[in-house]
Amino acid sequence: MTYKADKAIAEFVEQMGLILQAEGLPRIAGHIMGLMIMQEGPFSLSQLAERLSVSRASISTNTRLLEDLEVIVRTAKPGDRQDYFKLSPQPYARLLRGVVRRMRRARDVVESTQDSLPEGMTDTHERLKELDAFYEALIESFMDVVDTWDAERERPARQARQSERPSA
Amino acid sequence: MTYKADKAIAEFVEQMGLILQAEGLPRIAGHIMGLMIMQEGPFSLSQLAERLSVSRASISTNTRLLEDLEVIVRTAKPGDRQDYFKLSPQPYARLLRGVVRRMRRARDVVESTQDSLPEGMTDTHERLKELDAFYEALIESFMDVVDTWDAERERPARQARQSERPSA
DNA sequence: TAGTACGTTCAGTATTGACTGAACAAACTG
DNA sequence: CAGTTTGTTCAGTCAATACTGAACGTACTA
Q1: Is the peptide bond before B156 cis (omega within 30 degrees of 0)?
Q2: B150 in contact with A at a CB cutoff of 8 Å?
Q3: Which of A16, B40, B103, B120 could pair with A34 as two cysteines, CB 3.0-4.6 Å apart?
Q4: Which residue stretches of A23-121 are H helix?
């Protein structure tokens, strides 16, 4: 019964749009990512536009965005001039790396404030120190998750079989 | 030299506005939080409005938001009808709890999709399983950070001295 | 070379939501 | 009771930005 599948796919694509949107990304980027989770692809730009009922311009900008975030990769088919897109091998870990970058920048703000603040303000320095320590713990914790994920990726595990190894 | 301090404070308040905004919260919420990190307060609603040069309406809605997120607490001064606000004891850990809640909802989407998807789609199920495992690892990692923070809070440490114990 | 397919970019539109001013309700003061 | 003070809420405005259609540049094809 393929109707049930279609409905589940449509629902998931829609929800991923909302989830990514809550993370500050365009909704369509979430739709693209959601679709690629549900169906491996690869998809051409035109296919994505038609499948998601949005303009090719939107697909172009959002695929480039996801490409910059290293969530998807652009591939080619022999004898076909179109660009094709599919999920990159470890899309979630790569996405998380971007989050870590953002948190590092936030931490930089805290630390530069610590530097430029007069010594006398002891209480303020303590609160900043606490915030800095919090960021440190969080970043470290994130990196742990990413590293664990990458380690798992070393041995071509069952959970990511096809097209996993870059030098196939 | 208090000019240097004022400049550092203004800069930090502004930056916290941008950081919180990047996390999907209103900029003014970041300003409030930033100010309270730099100066302990407590601040009345009117004080915040004047200090940050925004309307009292904005302060009202944003203090309520931060209150819901458990980042700040509303207090009272004897013989003063105004509400006063200051950072809650472990504001960052509490904020993180909200993030965890959001991620749990996202994970729910993944799992309900797994349930409603026909068994036959093996590859899709594997990708969803990977995403689910990723969320699981992330949530667990977050909870670890929060728990560690809370444990540290148990013994009234040096890094959070005044007004730390609820039953003073 | 002209023609076509493909992806990108740019100006314009539409939507979202942050912020404001004003009206309002509740609690206090004389 | 009338008059303040305080916080909330609501309609309206404004700014940010996601998305579209059209124009453009490039590369392939006949």
Answers
A1: no
A2: no
A3: A16
A4: 27-38, 45-52, 56-68, 91-116
